[in-house]
Design a protein that fits this description.
Length: 104
């Protein structure tokens, strides 16, 4: 199974030393570039661990191909939602209720 993850969920798992749970539960973990950038910014908790974990899991996404305009969502959420749709992923790991989406 494939999961696309957003930064807040990844940071929370990293702080709990739980990134390995993603590997146990899912066959493939992917993140858009904006999520990688948000997770690995200097001073972010567990930035180095996340940089290491996300190597090879990052995919660029072009938001110009997707029309998503919910107010208050950042680049990470928007790119994660777009990548989820683009890859036809099984799950979207995100912590923002406004970002919930349906693939219909």
């Amino acid at each position: 199974m494939l999961v696309v993850a957003d930064s807040s969920a990844l940071v929370a798992l990293a702080v709990c030393d739980g990134l390995h749970w993603l590997d146990i539960r899912f066959q493939d973990v992917r993140v858009p570039v904006a999520v990688f950038n948000e997770c690995t910014v200097a001073g972010k908790p567990k930035a180095d661990a996340l940089r290491h974990y996300l190597q090879g899991k990052t995919i660029p996404i072009d938001l110009c191909e997707t029309i998503i305009t919910p107010a208050g969502l950042g680049d990470g959420e928007l790119e994660a939602m777009s990548l989820y749709k683009h890859l036809h992923a099984d799950f979207l790991l995100i912590d923002d209720r406004r970002a919930g989406c349906d693939r219909k």
